[in-house]
Specification:
CATH architecture: Up-down Bundle
Number of helices: 16
Structural class: mainly alpha
Strand content: under 5%
CATH topology: Growth Hormone, Chain: A
Largest sheet: none
Number of strands: 0
CATH class: Mainly Alpha
Order of helices and strands: HHHHHHHHHHHHHHHH
Radius of gyration: 21 Å
Helix content: over 70%
CATH superfamily: MFS general substrate transporter like domains
Distance between the termini: 31 Å
């Protein structure tokens, strides 16, 4: 296999780090923004959720766009776009402008994760794709962890407005580097033809079969497996996005953390989630290489991770701050363990290469509807219950169990989706029973 594949996936990792720093900086700056602009909890919840509206709904066209133009173009455009609007966040003067720039941030970031999944498919054989997915996926955890001390320090030095300018500039530098460095392996002149041939021969998974290649984008919604992946991703992200949006406010308001302790102890769950994700990808690939079927290897890790992550429900009811952080760390690490395999599924079930990013976008669309719900729902619950996080965290824990059941029973065999039978002339459009 060409060694440069690790450089390509590492660049995706870096982009995901920047992605989540730019996504999480608003949550860290939220107390200062609320004080400066006079926003209540419900108003801040609206601002936090704005990103997810465009980010979620544009996943659908973004996946199609990535498959059409390729990841070199899609990622350069995406990272450059969202970085510009991260910088613009620092100039916002009211709730309307904040909502506007966050909506535009979501437009740019919509193409990020499906593009990373396509890079993993392009450059890695099936037996390494779990580890490759865990590497780029762990960028979200590294970004979440780094955002706490980095943004907290930037706010103390240049204020919350200046912090958005600095973090936005990081993405602009990355986008320029990606444009000059990335090529698909078939077009990368520095890779020997024999290495390219070996990679293409060992990709496995999706095959450009005559029937599979004719699966239309809308027909993907007729597969039970796609719906199972959508349900599972919604449940997983409902819990993950608590850490990215309301977690800093929870530690500050409910556990009495200072801004300094938020940047140290508060980053522990995200730090432990990083090796949790790598372990999830490694274990999944190791089981596959030892002769387990893709279905057993991927589903075992998905179901185990989702069940363990339900521990988030107990974090708000324990009295000890140490126990609370331990439960949060267990939940986040378990979510990451499952998350690496979520993105492995995209390349495993795609009926052809031209469907990989499209399925990634569909899956991420469902997952980021959870971002809308968790941010708005938590803000409303805080207003109704006068600051209690018990209900939002209990719902997150329950949904983790639902996600485990979806991956176990709704998602079918982990293999390329077969061609669908033609619809009856009468127009039956139910979900196909094919896996």
């Amino acid at each position: 296999m060409p060694r440069i594949r690790w450089a390509m996936i590492f660049m995706c990792f870096l982009a995901n780090v920047i992605n989540f720093i730019d996504r999480a900086n608003l949550a860290i700056a939220a107390p200062g923004i609320r004080a400066d602009l006079g926003l209540d909890a419900a108003g801040m919840g609206l601002v936090l959720s704005a990103f997810f509206w465009t980010y979620a709904f544009l996943q659908l066209p973004a996946g199609w766009f990535i498959d059409k133009v390729g990841v070199r173009v899609s990622l350069a455009l995406a990272v450059g776009w969202w970085s510009l609007f991260t910088v613009a966040t620092g100039a916002a003067r009211g709730i309307g402008q904040l909502v506007g720039v966050r909506l535009m941030l979501g437009v740019g970031e919509a193409a990020a994760i499906p593009s990373f999944a396509k890079v993993a498919y392009n450059w890695f054989p099936r037996s390494e794709r779990g580890l490759a997915s865990s590497i780029f996926d762990s960028g979200s955890r590294v970004g979440s962890a780094l955002s706490l001390p980095l943004v907290a320090w930037l706010i103390s030095v240049v204020g919350w407005r200046g912090s958005f300018v600095v973090t936005g500039a990081l993405g602009l530098v990355w986008a320029l580097a990606w444009w000059f460095i990335y090529r698909d392996p078939e077009r990368y002149r520095a890779v020997a033809p024999r290495a390219v041939d070996a990679l293409l021969a060992q990709r496995g998974g999706p095959v450009e079969a005559e029937g599979a290649a004719r699966v239309a984008w809308l027909d993907l919604f007729r597969y039970r497996t796609i719906w199972g992946m959508m349900i599972g991703m919604f449940c997983l992200n409902f819990a993950i996005y608590f850490f990215i949006t309301w977690f800093p406010s929870y530690l500050l308001q409910s556990r009495g953390f200072s801004l300094a302790s938020l940047g140290t102890l508060g980053m522990l769950p995200a730090l432990l989630a990083i090796p949790g994700g790598w372990l999830g990808g490694y274990v999944s690939d190791a089981l596959f290489r030892r002769g387990w079927s893709a279905t057993r290897a991927r589903k075992t890790c998905l179901v185990f991770g989702m069940l363990m992550s339900s521990s988030i429900a107990f974090s708000a009811v324990v009295e000890s701050t140490a126990a609370c952080l331990a439960l949060f760390a267990l939940a986040y690490a378990s979510l990451s363990f499952a998350g690496a395999n979520v993105w492995t599924l995209v390349g495993e079930v795609a009926p052809s290469r031209s469907h990989v990013a499209s399925i990634g976008g569909i899956q991420n669309f469902a997952g980021n509807l959870a971002g809308i719900f968790i941010t708005t729902f938590t803000g409303v619950m805080l207003t109704i219950t006068k600051g209690s996080f018990v209900i939002p965290l209990s719902v997150a824990g329950a949904l983790c169990v639902v996600g485990a059941l979806s991956y176990l029973f709704v998602v079918g065999k982990i293999e390329p989706l077969p061609p669908l039978p033609a619809r009856a002339a009468a127009g039956g459009r139910g979900v196909a029973t094919a896996p």
